[in-house]
Write a structure and sequence with these properties.
Helix content: over 70%
CATH architecture: Up-down Bundle
Number of strands: 0
Subcellular location: Cytoplasm
Mean pLDDT: 92
Strand content: under 5%
Protein name: PTS system lactose-specific EIIA component
Order of helices and strands: HHH
Distance between the termini: 68 Å
Low-confidence stretches: none
CATH topology: Methane Monooxygenase Hydroxylase, Chain G, domain 1
CATH class: Mainly Alpha
Radius of gyration: 18 Å
Largest sheet: none
Cofactor: Mg(2+)
Subunit structure: Homotrimer.
Main location: cytoplasm
Number of helices: 3
Amino acid sequence: MSEIPPTGENTKIQDLAMEIIAFAGDGHAESLRAIDEEFAENSVESINLLEKAHGNIERAHKAQTKLLQMEAKGEEITPSLLMVHAQNHLMNSILINELSEKMIQMYRKLKEREV
C-alpha cells in the first residue's frame, strides 16, 4: 500500500513539528552542555550555552504557538506521532533547561562554601 504524500496544510503542520523537534533538541543539548561547562569551571561558556538554549527553546515554542493559532482559527490539526514527538521534545527541553539552571545555581553555591 502506498503512502499519501502530505499536501498543503498537512505539509505546513509537519514542517512546524520538525521545527519544534529541531529547536527543542538543540535547546536540550545546550542545557546539558552548560552543566558540563560549569563543572569544568567554565562559567562564561556555561552562561552562553544557557542563553543559546533559551533562544532555541523560544523558537520551538513559537512554532508550537503557530500550530495553536492555526487550530484556534478553525484549521483541523490531526494528531500524529510526529506531532506527539514534537510536543514531547519541547516539554522535555523546557524541563531540562529549568533543571540545568537550578543545578548550576546549586553547584555555584556549593563552590562558594568550599572557599
